[in-house]
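Replying to the earlier thread about multi-chain prediction with a worked example.

Input:
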Amino acid sequence: MSFIEFVIRHQREIIHLTEEHLILVGLSMSIALLVGIPLGILITRQPRWRKPVLGFANVVQTIPSLALFGFLIPIPFVGGIGARTAIVALTLYALLPIIRNTYAGIMSVDPAVRQAGLGMGMTDRQLLFQVELPLALGVILAGVRVATVISVGVATIAAAIGAGGLGVFIFRGVAMVDNQLILAGALPAALLALVIDFTLGWIERHLTPRTEARREMA
Amino acid sequence: MAEENRAAVEFHDVTYRLNDRPLVSHLTFHVRRGEILVLLGRSGSGKTTTLKLINRLLAPTEGEVRVEGTATVDWDPIRLRRRIGYVIQEVGLFPHFTVERNVGLVPTLEGWEPERVRDRVHRLLRLVGLPPEQFAHRYPHELSGGQRQRVGVARALAADPPLLLMDEPFGALDPLTRVEMQREFHEWQQRLGKTVVFVTHDIQEALFLASRIGLMDEGRLVELGTPTEFLRSSRPEARAFIQCLRAVPSDDRLSEEKLS
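Result:
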């Protein structure tokens, strides 16, 4: 049986698992954005929070993904078997690139621009929303892009704790020593990552304000 | 009446310390309405710190700075700063805003009608010699250094503040553009009657623009007087600056060099 036939035969299951995969990634990324961007902004305002926040995100990033899923299972409320634990773990993984890039993006705004804004009587909020965030947008989106692509990959491992997604095929394939099964999970996951990477890259290019700085970066 | 007589800015024995190191000490002086007070001094003499004490980017450690009779620490800092134009050497235009939005920033923050902001911006762009038809929709990176600084001045004037603070505004420009800007700025100031506190380390610029020159050295104001008084000063710090005026080789020296 060729791979094409295999795909056609299993197309409903592939679509279903892809949907699960997208939900895992989508939910965890949404939470990570809601937590990570404000945290990134916070540490530009409160320098003493910078070390603990970045330190925590860094440490989480160093835990092997399979181990992190394992660690979370016995924890009440966030843990257990299933999608909820996977979403918590994926959220934690996505935090570092988002926090770090939000922080770096804002800090890379020309100090003269900030000085001028303050000197003309902008409030901190006006400075943040009208100047710092728009100018940092490119860098922040680059972080979101990295986090999402990583997340698509790591989400395949979520199948190990019963969270579903394309990892189901991969684990089944590994257990049965069936390359077609592995490919049926790996290929759609890789495609998903590429499509997301391309789309976010496109958004990044179109939302980033036209400034000299960006041209130099490009 | 009192309103008219009161100095625009008053320093009363002001000291500002950063980590116990005084950046300015015991400053006492007044800025008169409508004058250009030039603070002259070498780098690190406390000129910029003095400016920042006026718009409360810094608050005095000791003493009191008053703007229009009210101590800066009693002003709402946002209100205070919107009444004071601020121009810095690096200009600090917002790179993602067009020239028009940059200049219209403070009026927009103040909630003016868009139509009124636009009128005002176009009038100011004409004043600083940048025809709005040509420049309003450009971005800062599409301008030359001199044009950028013109936009910076227009932006500072946008909400018609009575007081302007200028921190080496022409310092990064080439010498010809600088002289051109100085001349034009002098003319605008005469026409608009703004009170200006102007920081520079360029003695020629100081002599050309100043109603009065305040000489700063190591955080102190060592001399304050008209340009004529300044040139007659016998203080070594002042003499050192006046020497710079003679740094141009005289005809004698040029001919001597030819002979040797």
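Residues 94 and 201 of chain A are 17 Å apart (CA to CA).

Feel free to reuse this layout for your own posts.
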